[in-house]
């Protein structure tokens, strides 16, 4: 045991795992097969955590939530066996919720380092840029985009490309702000290096803004708009004594940005194209909603409501998600091929009921709560706390219109972002006994 512990806690071992984490994140979008190799290394090298850190790791709230996630999935499966034996799986599928907790491994190896967190988030953004050039001819796609066509740069589909650009936009904007404000870990950077980094980040901002616009994903536009609009409120939550005039000025600045973006022909056309569908929805004519992009989503949610009413607390297990579409009279022909409901929150209700949805919301809550706790000991985490609120808001919003948390690229994004936020609390909680012993 002592030799295992010595190897596990050595600097070389830690660097091996850290490099694997960064390479996993960097290659996940452009080179998925290569990324899987580094993910396997990460998992295998992390398994000793449950032995070396067993006295404390099992007390961690996130690990307890993982245990509840496994239990909820088993209960929902049993419920399906009893009431829906024709569609129930022969055994429970435990990975659907459990995979959302992989960030615990990554958070452990980041060791509460701001520098490591920024590097991790940076690999996601850089990997996305590489992916835009690797998966498609970037210049041909750009030409199509400038002609008003919707493009996706061959990264799964436009929704996922837009999701990545939206996340990367938030990461880059936040990093640039911390660099200019000389916050940790950028406080000791020399002036020439700072100027170079700022120039690169500004170019990246332009790139991600362009991709976000031309992918024409309305849910990402809406999520970004809502997140940016509510960020001044987040600021007052973290800094209760903040200057109210500055908050008011920030809203004026936000309004100017929104007005400017609203003048874009691409934005106007994309927003107005579903006017007829929205009229049906607003007027309450729910039986005649056309099968447009928005219409498919709303019709699938209406169909899901019947399943949710049948088993609201425990759900009907994961197989029920596809059955919502299969058994709906509104979906015919090729539309029967949809295996998801374009809304992760509703999918969770269908599969795991209110218990499952409460678990997901508790996961989000505890992530942010952990930073509010930790920033009392580490004031340098104040702005990271604001960023966590921004990300959770953005992530919850886009998952109202797509099932990112249920798809591999979405799970990857969730875990990379969560790891960077949760590492501070996890690292601190594992150090507590050592600190007590030194006092």
From TrEMBL:
Keywords: Membrane, Transmembrane, Transmembrane helix
Record bears the keyword Transmembrane: yes
Domain O-antigen ligase-related intervals: 203-360
Pfam families: Wzy_C
Top-level taxon: Bacteria
Membrane topology classification: Multi-pass membrane protein
UniProt name for this protein: O-antigen polymerase
Organism: Aliivibrio fischeri SR5
